[in-house]
Amino acid sequence: MTDPTATLTRPVIVVQNAVKSFSGRVVVDIAELTLGDVPIEGLIGPNGAGKTTLMRMVMHSTGLDRGTITLWPHGAVAGGGVVLSNLPSHRMAGHGVVKSNQVIMDFDKLTIWDSLLLAAAASKSERPHRIFDEPRVFAEASDEVARYLDEFGIREPSTYAKSAGEKKLLDILRCLLLKPKFLLLDEPTAGLPEELTAKVIDEVRTVASQGTAVVIVEHNLDVIWNLCDEVHFMAEGKVIMKGTPAEIRAHRTVVEKYLGEGHV
Amino acid sequence: MNLDWLDAFLIYGFFTIVVVSGLGLLLHLQLGLARIANFGVVGFFGIGMYSFGVLYVKVDWPFGDPWQFLVCIAAGTLAAGLSGVVVGWLVGDLNEDGVLVGTLGFATAVFILATTEKELTGGAQGMGGLQFPYDVGGVKANELLWLVITAAVVGGIVFYVWRVHRSPYGRLLVAVGSNEPLARSLGKPTFRTKLWLFAVTSAGMGLLGAMYGVMERFLRPTNLGVDITLAAMVALVLGGSARVWGAVVGVVLTVGFFDIIVQNYLPVPVEWYSQALPVMREALFGAALILVLMFRPFGILGDMRRDKLMRSLHGD
């Protein structure tokens, strides 16, 4: 676990009266939820609890039926809030709010290098008249990209990502290259081999210790219990419990009722 | 200059190859990289052609050629670019079917406007009064020089497209075409990217339209038939829509084969020229498209190879 008392100023995301329903079925209905109070938060709950939908609502890739989601870049009391739920989804990364995807998402025509350079490139280098900017983008990003490639053992970065695990990893690396201030990870270790899971967890700890707020949705509860400073338990669209991993695990009956036996 | 050896039809054939190659290259940026199937190429081409023509012929400019010519051709290019922004804004968030119908509808609207706005365009009778901004001695010499100038412009387009493939902008276009929601989640303004793409490529199509109008010297709505869009589209898909040289290879094999080999060197009966040949041309282009989609769906040059490109740019 990271040190929750660290004095770094972390951004906070406040969800208020946020409702989302699909075909009349309410999937998320949250009166008030603050994310980012501690360095690493977990979001757990059974399938269909609304975890992924909530993450997508924060990113505004899924619109809200009503309610607001606000980013406070310098903490809850510091002012200068940004109403994320009023912004188009492409503006999130500019405010430092970045999310990895639950399902595998990749650019099928881009190589691994391409994909990572795309994440690292500033938008001013991507204008139609900037046709000579590739060397500059490469020079600025290549050291960091090469470090990730080396650290995660990607041996042929000039080719396309082939396996599901490689694509999943690439998704996380793209997020890290965006230098997130608020990082949402939706099942980051699903489909990853064990040694890569450990490396991803290390990397998440590192960015959290440097001031990034991290929220992680994960079905592998060992990851949640070991990594998170605080855990939100979601069921039927609501956060029904909040506490440290130990406190959540202490509610054995509730957790087992939703997740099945053997998870605590 | 004695150009008796040169057949005027040959100049015209090569000119068509050059212009359609330019259109195909611009379409390649839309279709090959960003996967936007624009079936309204001739609409932007027509906006450029008629904006240039109307401004050049109908407006009483305080200065003569070459400035009048250059100002009008720049205005035609700009008008086409602006129309690209409007069309891009309308179709940017639509799916493939919506883009197809929207762009085709735009091209039809341009054709109808060219026909009905008689005071401006001369309607179906057409509009004369266009001329080359120079006179180097004789029609054929002027046309040859115009072919060379147009080829230089298309050479510039080839260079731009070649550079785009090797730039962060090209990577962004491929990303937008591959997975737009993912590109958005990385902070890429995908709608604005498509709008700019439409603006730049439509401006290029408009410039080519204006240059085509100069060569024709007489503008008719029949210049804006769907055959130009189809020639560019078929050639691009035949050559390889994702490759820089795909459009050029495709145009040489289709327009080149038909407009130069068939029309100039095969013993075709004279009466075929007005009716039968244009129909045969469309039928052969259509057959070529079907065959290539059946047997080589990525075109003769094959699919995009970013892996090779990245190795050549940045090593292994």
Sequence-ordered SSE layout with sheet pairings:
The complex is a heterodimer of chains A (264) and B (316).
Chain A: E1 12-22, E2 25-35, E3 40-44, H1 51-59, E4 66-72, E5 82-83, E6 97-99, H2 112-120, H3 134-151, H4 164-177, E7 182-186, H5 194-209, E8 213-217, H6 221-227, E9 230-235, E10 238-243, H7 245-250, H8 252-259
Parallel strand pairs in A: 3-8, 3-9, 6-7, 7-8
Antiparallel strand pairs in A: 1-2, 1-4, 4-5, 9-10
Helix pairs in contact in A: 2-3, 2-4
Chain B: H1 8-33, H2 41-58, H3 67-91, H4 96-116, H5 118-121, H6 139-165, H7 168-178, H8 180-185, H9 190-216, H10 226-239, H11 246-265, H12 276-295, H13 306-314
Q: Stretches of chain B where pLDDT falls below 50 for ≥5 residues?
A: none
Instruction: Name the largest protein-protein interface in this structure.
Output: A-B, 43 and 37 residues
The ordered H/E elements of chain B are HHHHHHHHHHHHH
How much of the residues of chain A is beta strand, in percent? Answer: 15-25%
Can you describe what's shown?
- The complex is a heterodimer of chains A (264) and B (316).
- In chain A, helix 2 (112-120) packs across helix 3 (134-151) and helix 2 (112-120) packs parallel to helix 4.
- By secondary structure, chain A is of the alpha/beta class.
- In chain A, the strands form 2 sheets. Chain A has a 6-stranded mixed β-sheet with strand order 6-7-8-3-9-10, sandwiched between helices. In chain A, strands 2-1-4-5 form a 4-stranded antiparallel β-sheet.
- Chain A has 2 domains: 12-105 and 179-259, P-loop containing nucleotide triphosphate hydrolases (Rossmann fold), CATH 3.40.50.300; 107-160, no CATH class.
- Helix content of chain A is 33%, strand content 23%.
- Chain B has 316 residues and is an all-alpha fold.
- Chain B has a domain at 19-225.
- Chain B has helices at 8-33, 41-58, 67-91, 96-116, 118-121, 139-165, 168-178, 180-185, 190-216, 226-239, 246-265, 276-295, 306-314.
- The mean pLDDT of chain B is 91.
